[in-house]
Amino acid sequence: MENGGSRQATMAELQEVQITEEKPLLPGQTPEVAKTHSVETPYGSVTFTVYGTPKPKRPAILTYHDVGLNYKSCFQPLFQFGDMQEIIQNFVRVHVDAPGMEEGAPVFPLGYQYPSLDQLADMIPCILQYLNFSTIIGVGVGAGAYILSRYALTHPDTVEGLVLINIDPNAKGWMDWAAHKLTGLTSSIPEMILGHLFSQEELSGNSELIQKYRNIITHAPNLENIELYWNSYNNRRDLNLERGGAVTLKCPVMLVVGDQAPHEDAVVECNSKLDPTQTSFLKMADSGGQPQLTQPGKLTEAFKYFLQGMGYMASSCMTRLSRSRTASLTSAASIDGNRSRSRTLSQSSESGTLPSGPPGHTMEVSC
């Protein structure tokens, strides 16, 4: 972390660009102005984009994307969703691009040592120091979920909550490595990354969404950089999470995974290692490998309940969703196979409160 003279050097190297997002606007809504910054850290430069202005006594929402994506291709469908506007108008948000993943990023020179996921996590304090933000609510997908979890373990006082989509907290075992190497002999890097992002059913179906993301990754001008991020993800260390142990996430956590998604088993295992009184587990049906792309409405609703449980979304804010979408999270709900608990969630949805469940119980919802 830089201060003093080095802080001034960092400021001198800061780049700032204003971007006006092009997206459909709600009635009475004005365009959001985004400010994109690039700041030096001990592990190289990192780019991040800030939307909105800091709100008193509220954390920033900080996102981190998965391999093969950047903040726009990973999170834009979610944060541009109409009902999400009730959330983002109440929080400043910071979208982090992993080094070399930002739009227009130059290809790293041959032999460049890309940061490990632990080092990428260690870049976050530099971002928060520059912005003068004290706390965050993290939203991460895949590799980004791991990075935010690693950051939360080393800086627990600065993380108020985490939404972790498709997290795999484990290092690759020998069997995983063998399978990865064999796959690498017959599959290209883009195909391996697509297999990480989406289920085999989705890839076989070759929907418009799959075609779009296959094209994005296959023809990415920074594909060499993407491969470096991919290698860092595959070389990640075990988070060593332990329920009731010294190493655990101390903040409220919402785990999210699609039913039949590539990382379903890993997320289930992660759930078993976290404090059940602080953890909600959302398994989303018909969402595939990237719920934030395929089911932004349901994920927005779950995020609102999560924030409300933290005391940041008053009942009055739970308007259209709580009235018209009550059944969407509960129609196929199953909490440890207990149907009565799904009815409890439905009743809580109608009243606009987060169903926290009894102490010692991890809420699992299939929607």
TrEMBL record:
Its main location: other. Coiled coil: none annotated. One of its GO terms (biological process) is cell differentiation. It is found in: Cell projection, Growth cone; Cytoplasm. Residues 330-367 are annotated as: Disordered. One of its GO terms (cellular component) is growth cone. SUPFAM superfamilies: alpha/beta-Hydrolases. Keywords: Cytoplasm, Developmental protein, Differentiation, Neurogenesis, Wnt signaling pathway. The keyword Glycosyltransferase does not apply. Pfam families: Ndr. Contributes to the regulation of the Wnt signaling pathway. Down-regulates CTNNB1-mediated transcriptional activation of target genes. May be involved in neuron differentiation. Contributes to the regulation of the Wnt signaling pathway. Down-regulates CTNNB1-mediated transcriptional activation of target genes, such as CCND1, and may thereby act as tumor suppressor. May be involved in dendritic cell and neuron differentiation. Belongs to the NDRG family. PANTHER family: N-MYC DOWNSTREAM REGULATED. This is Protein NDRG2. It comes from Lynx canadensis (Canada lynx).
